[in-house]
Amino acid sequence: MSPVTDTLSMTFAALSDPTRRAMLARLVQGEASVNELAAPFRMSLPAVSKHIKVLEKAGLLIKTRQAQQRPCKIDGEQLKQAVDWIEQYRQLWEGRLDRLDAYLLELHASESAARPAQEMATKPDASEPIETPDKARKNAGKPAQLASGSEKPKPATRSERNTPSAKEKTDDDTLQQQIGFDF
Q: Is there a domain that residue 60 lies in?
């Protein structure tokens, strides 16, 4: 394990506790004594000292000496390393999401271009006879396409074949809820 990974592990372990994060938030405002850091919490001074030691060991806090006091101040070097490590993954995921967005826009554009052709196929053609109530009774038991008089069923358009079923849409919605990511 490299020293950077070990340092990162200690940094993230120190940051995992809300009490220690609150202490660091207080130290962003300036130096503070152990008593000042302990004031907002309902815990003993030894417990506060343990939190301070964890932050100090992780390199997030420095104890200085001023006469008889030992004020604490924040050390941003380890935080910077953690931010740099996270940043490389943020850039990776933003790139992936940008490519996904571009693909979805392209897909939407191609579906929009195909839609007018599909609408033309579903609009009644002036050359086809209009079905009257008498014809409707006569053709009641026949499939809709054969009842209109044409013997050959029309093939489905490409967009009709690729339209997800209601079950597929439900499965997608369920998956999105499970992973907490809208895609």
A: yes
CA dihedral 174→161→109→94, nearest 10 degrees, is 30
User: 10-65, pLDDT tens digit by residue?
Assistant: 999 999 999 999 999 999 999 998 889 999 999 999 999 999 999 999 999 998 88
Are 92 and 22 contacting, i.e. CB atoms less than 8 angstroms apart? no
Domain harbouring 47, CATH code: 1.10.10.10
- Please state the domain count of the chain: 1
In whole numbers, what is the pLDDT of the chain averaged over residues?
76
CA angle 33, 16, 31 (to 5 degrees): 20
Query: Does 102 map to a domain?
Result: no
Using alpha carbons only, give the angle 127, 129, 131 rounded to the nearest 5 degrees: 150
Question: Which residues, in sequence order, are CB contacts of 32 under 8 Å at separation 6+?
Answer: 26, 71, 72, 73
Residue 27, domain member (yes or no): yes
Say if pTM beats, i.e. exceeds, 0.70.
Answer: no
Domain that holds residue 37: 3-76
Q: From CA 52, how far away is CA 62, in angstroms rounded?
A: 9
